[in-house]
């Protein structure tokens, strides 16, 4: 596994440098489905860069990625790389920070490697099945299995604003709600033990890398019904420490 980890890390650092070198004022911004759903030329450039690197390194691999041309894969048969070229595009455009690049490798549906690169903080969270979770070169230790009452809970802004699925009641039971606008940063917050969970509506590229790392640390995750994630289309997403996960599911109103 070592050479591939080294390769992927070097791609992510290079992609991060490209993003940092780009002028925020010079970004080309396109609306996708509505005025809050954006894609920029940098999302597309980073996706193309990573797709080319993967294809050159592993020509047999299949690729699922958020932007045009690669977002139609409906199964995880074989070796599949899953890419979110910029997670938190709205933050990228509006704040110039609080976004990340995510990449995961799955084999026949089983997560093997996950990478979440917080570009502006220059923090790469990575790891994989049986190898632990790291922040740059530092190995992280598994967070405490806290209850809902004992920790901060990350949420998606849309679900919170519209109070979907009784989500505000769940937030009220926690120590406090946090909304970062970036699924990758929410995953990082759980891995560091800063948040006990995350409730959102996500696509496979939003959760693929995070799930590999969450599994390694004993977190539970599912759709809102407590079933396995489909890795196809957008779905409701619950991840939490085992104790908080049970509690959250008991309060969810589907
Ligand atoms: C989005 C962000 C956001 C989450 C959305 C995602 P994108 O990803 O992770 O925090 O609430 O559901 O779609 O579109 O910026 O890659
Ligand atoms: Ca997007
Ligand atoms: Ca995303
Ligand atoms: Ca994205």
Automatic annotation (TrEMBL):
Which InterPro entries has this protein been placed in?
Answer: Inositol_monophosphatase-like (IPR000760)
Organism of derivation: Enterococcus thailandicus
Q: Which UniProt keywords are present, listed alphabetically?
A: Magnesium, Metal-binding
Q: Which GO terms describe its biological process?
A: inositol metabolic process; signal transduction
Residue positions binding Mg(2+): 66, 84, 86-87, 206
List membrane-spanning regions.
none
Sections of the chain in a coiled coil: none
Name-wise, this protein is Inositol monophosphatase
Q: Which cofactors?
A: Mg(2+)
Q: Name one GO molecular function term.
A: metal ion binding
């Amino acid at each position: 596994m070592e050479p591939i980890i080294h390769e992927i890390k070097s791609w992510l650092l290079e992609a991060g440098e490209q993003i940092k070198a780009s002028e925020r004022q010079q970004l080309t911004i396109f609306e996708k489905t509505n005025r809050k759903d954006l894609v920029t030329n940098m999302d597309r450039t980073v996706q193309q860069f990573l797709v080319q690197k993967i294809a050159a390194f592993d020509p047999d691999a299949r690729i699922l990625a958020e932007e045009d041309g690669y977002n139609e894969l409906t199964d995880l048969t074989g070796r599949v790389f899953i890419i979110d070229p910029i997670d938190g595009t709205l933050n990228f455009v509006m704040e110039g920070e609080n976004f990340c690049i995510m990449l995961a490798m799955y084999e026949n549906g089983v997560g093997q490697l996950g990478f979440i690169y917080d570009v502006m903080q220059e923090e790469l969270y990575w790891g994989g099945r049986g190898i632990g979770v790291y922040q740059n070169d530092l190995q992280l230790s598994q967070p405490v299995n806290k209850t809902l009452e004992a920790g901060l809970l990350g949420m998606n802004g849309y679900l919170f604003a519209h109070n979907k699925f009784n989500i505000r009641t769940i937030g009220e039971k926690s120590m406090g709600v946090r909304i970062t606008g970036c699924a990758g940063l929410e995953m990082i917050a759980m891995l560091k033990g800063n948040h006990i969970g995350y409730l959102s509506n996500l696509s496979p590229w939003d959760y693929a890398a995070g799930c590999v790392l969450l599994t390694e640390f004993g977190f539970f995750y599912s759709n809102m019904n407590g079933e396995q994630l489909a890795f196809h289309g957008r779905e409701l997403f619950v991840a939490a420490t085992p104790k908080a996960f049970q509690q959250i599911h008991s309060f969810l109103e589907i």
